[in-house]
Amino acid sequence: MRAARGPEADPPGATVFIGLKPTMTYVFQVVTQINSGSPEVVVRARGNAIAKAVDVVEVVRRRFLEGQVELGSIAISTERLVNRDGRDANVSAIAIPIRRVGPPPGAPATGTRPPPAAGPPSP
Amino acid sequence: MRAARGPEADPPGATVFIGLKPTMTYVFQVVTQINSGSPEVVVRARGNAIAKAVDVVEVVRRRFLEGQVELGSIAISTERLVNRDGRDANVSAIAIPIRRVGPPPGAPATGTRPPPAAGPPSP
């Protein structure tokens, strides 16, 4: 369980940036991340790719991982970039967190370490 | 103050649908709504217009109404449409609520009715 959940606190590998590849490429990246044990994947996009990011999240949660994930709080922002002419340009961005609901698939041990000793069960 | 805030409970005129017009057209629609007293405007878009919807909201809240509005919970969804060939097509959609923070601008009386009698102030 992580205490910090802000964009700056993403665990490594848990972000999928949406670019020019086909939608399904990113869908499979997200599904693979979730199925390999990531509790949360943040789908991020800028500019025109924002619409594709929403497509990716909708396909993941309605077709591939239905009932297994939920969305976190969607954030939009403005990023200041320097374009090819060397001038500043503002571009909109979106971040959509997808969280796994319930235990990991098949609940396999993902490492070689034994699980930590459990405390006494609460009735 | 409205009790219901869901998408189905939008007050009339408080939704701005993003389409093919220039971004600033929709920016001015939103600013006009907020400045005319709407406590909340929901910016909605489907498909490729989703990126423009995010642009509109970012321009409104960072340039025109800075410090005067805040965003509500952003929702994404899938809508089933019938395209020109008569076949079903899924299209992603977004809804971004923008709420005025604080009293209406200039706080003019918007109607001719007197304000309701206030109850005793709670300490």
Please provide a brief summary of the model.
Chain A contains two helices and five strands, in the order βαβαβββ.
Tell me what the structure shows.
The structure is a homodimer of 123-residue chains. Chain A is an alpha+beta fold and 123 residues long. Helices cover 24% and strands 28% of the residues of chain A. Chain A has helices spanning 23-35, 49-64, and strands at residues 15-17, 40-46, 69-71, 75-82, 88-100. In chain A, strands 1, 2, 3, 4 and 5 form a five-stranded mixed β-sheet that branches. Chain A starts with 14 loop residues before the first strand and ends in a 23-residue tail after the last strand. Chains A and B meet through helix 2, strand 4 and strand 5 of A and helix 2, strand 4 and strand 5 of B.
Number of helices of chain A: 2
The beta-strand count of chain A equals 5
N-to-C SSE series of chain A? EHEHEEE
The Rg value of chain A, from CA coordinates, equals 17 Å
Form type of chain A: elongated
Structural class by sheet pairing and helices of chain A = alpha+beta
Question: What characteristics describe this protein?
Answer:
homodimer; alpha+beta; 5-stranded mixed sheet
Describe the secondary structure blueprint for this structure:
Two copies of one chain form a homodimer.
Chain A: E1 15-17, H1 23-35, E2 40-46, H2 49-64, E3 69-71, E4 75-82, E5 88-100
Parallel strand pairs in A: 1-2
Antiparallel strand pairs in A: 2-5, 3-5, 4-5
Helix pairs in contact in A: 1-2
